Amino acid sequence: PGFISTAMTEKLTEEQKGKILVGVPAARMGEVREVSSAVLYLASPEAGYITGSVLHVNGGMAMV
Fold it and tell me: In terms of residue numbers, what domain contains 53?
């Protein structure tokens, strides 16, 4: 995933976070629940026909 609000990213300074978020179109850190929701979807029967795909959970960083 992209930059997610966790204990690790909380150690970053505001300046460091600002430099990171310049490259994130969503202009914010992701939340753990957003990553876990994506994982739950991919593990669910609803995603049973999805194969060989990459799900970018990164606020748009992969597009920049």
Answer: 7-63
What pLDDT was estimated at residue 62?
A: 87
Tokens of 28: 């914010």
Identify whether 2 is part of a domain. Answer: no
Residue from 35, 34, 8, 32 nearest 20 by CA: 8
Q: 28: which residues sit within 8 A by CB, 6+ positions away? A: 21, 59
DSSP SS3 for 48: coil
Q: What is the mean pLDDT of residues 14-42?
A: 97
Return the residue matching tokens 């204990």.
7
